[in-house]
Write a structure and sequence with these properties.
This protein is α/β, with parallel strands linked by helices. It contains eight helices and ten strands. Bound molecules: zinc ion.
């Protein structure tokens, strides 16, 4: 979440289209946050896609394709492992984006199994919303629902390992913590020794 994984997926699929390869793109029907018929990144890149109810539905539409893109793979269940194996065995390039951990920080099936059988893996990291460190976890801000609750920045924030473990004790978006140098400059302008004092304080001296 917020790591740019959908953006990266779209980039790769666009390149395949530019190379005139036959591309089919899928996403789970559960994820209709932005659009039903497009994959949309947080940075508002988008590409047309087909919404599927189950992983097996991918097989119905993918037999002509050379390249298959699947977003939010964590919502398609264990069946997706078999589906990807079948497609890859048929010589197709299969690109799956998904969350590898759930909101508890536990491996989010079927992504761990897909990581194990993939030839290539790219881990994209977000930025921790508390401290600005690289973040690989998704923190759910409100106590609500089970493992699958679809939401955006209203429900989730990216966190690093440390801030994830702190839970509610870590408070998000503290700008001084996040950008220490900039905040310092705003709060207290740096003046070199011997430099003229700002106009206002000189007036006060007189
Ligand atoms: Zn952090």
């Amino acid at each position: 979440m917020f790591s740019g994984k959908t953006e990266e997926l779209i980039r790769r699929l666009r390149r395949a289209q530019i190379a005139r390869q036959r591309v089919e793109i899928f996403k789970p029907v559960i994820d209709d946050r932005y659009a039903k018929d497009h994959i949309v990144s947080h940075s508002e890149l988008k590409i047309p896609s087909r919404a599927v109810r189950t992983a097996k539905d991918v097989l119905r539409w993918a037999h002509e394709a050379q390249v298959i893109g699947i977003d939010e793979g964590q919502f398609l269940g264990a069946e997706l492992i078999d589906v990807c194996e079948k497609l890859a065995r048929a010589g197709k390039r299969v690109i799956v984006a998904g969350l590898d951990q759930d909101y508890m920080g536990k491996p989010f099936e079927p992504m761990p199994q897909l990581l194990a059988i993939s030839e290539f893996i790219t881990k994209t990291l977000a930025i921790c919303m508390v401290c600005g460190a690289p973040a690989n976890r998704t923190y759910r801000k409100v106590a609500k629902g089970g493992r699958v609750v679809v939401g955006g920045a209203d429900l989730y924030e990216a966190r690093c390992r440390r801030c994830f473990d702190l839970g509610q004790r870590a408070k998000a978006a503290d700008p001084i913590h996040q950008f220490p140098e900039e905040s310092h400059e705003i709060a207290k302008p740096v003046r070199r020794r011997g430099a003229a004092a700002p106009a206002r304080s000189r007036r006060r001296v007189r």
